[in-house]
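User: My instructor asked us to take a sequence, write out its structure as tokens, and then describe one feature of it. I'm not sure where to start. Here is the sequence I was given:
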Amino acid sequence: MSTKSKVLNILESNRGRAVSGQDLAEKMGISRTAINKAVKSLRKEGFPIMASPRRGYTLSNQSDVLSIPAIRAHLDTETSEIPIELYRSVTSTNDKARELATFGPAIPSRAVVIANEQTAGRGRLGRSFYSPADTGIYMSFLIKPEFDISHAGLITTAAATAVVSAIENLTELDPEIKWVNDVYLNNKKICGILTEAVSDFETGTIQYLVVGIGINCSTRNFPKDIAECGGSLTDSDEAFFRNALVAEVINQFIPLTHHLEERKFLDSYRKHSMVIGREIQVYKGGIDSGEGQAARAKDIDDNGGLVVEYKDGTKETLATGEISIRLSE
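Assistant: Let's start with the prediction itself. The structure tokens for your sequence are:
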């Protein structure tokens, strides 16, 4: 661990309380000059660290800069040792996770990649995902399947349930799930989920699943093409404490991945559905494929599929893939 990371670790564990430069130097066995240099570097990265000649250094309680020490401070016992990679900016966390799985060192069955910004974030069916710096959470889980791969479609359903639970646990908000991979708040999309596979070309087997999650925390000024449908968890300028939300998503999601085939999360998924019981349009080739087919959403089946009934009375269970739905007015 670098000097800068060690200083941040100590300041995070004493957030809101001053730690003297002398104490930092003695704990780390380095000079006061090295401590000062590390603090200056952290400030350049955006960490609000105050300095007082008589008291020392204090990391503000209002700091919302993503950091591994701050994330780990909120993790449960079960998730406390999960490997975490954190970046200031990446093309997409899914790309970084795939790279880690393919070219990185040996990793355990679960890991997470997090970024403060994505320059080429993407969603289902090749769509882009707006991912500006400092206002959102962009994270991807690497999951080594311990379950029958035929049930892999449940991963996205579990991820959506985990996001909703995390938001409810930390706020007084009431998010909803739009089948299959979007989370909405007040009829605005605040979260998208993209699940991809990392395959072994020699054996043709799936080595890892990559589950990307993007959450708009305080994002504003959306591009014109999504300005009407894009939303955020808060419109406030105050810090949202993204570290706590990242940790809670990890806390909620990782246990579900170990017991995926038990499907215990499906009741919560159904409860939070904004689709069940409503009139929808079904697009078999995606929204841009042409005219949709009118139907009524009836239920979510035990594999996460959407059960719909068409106008002629026939029923069908929709699976993920090239299928999209749109709520009717």
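For the description part of your assignment, you could build on this observation: The helical segments are 3-13, 21-28, 32-44, 68-72, 93-103, 154-170, 242-258, 266-271. Try explaining in your own words what that tells you about the chain.
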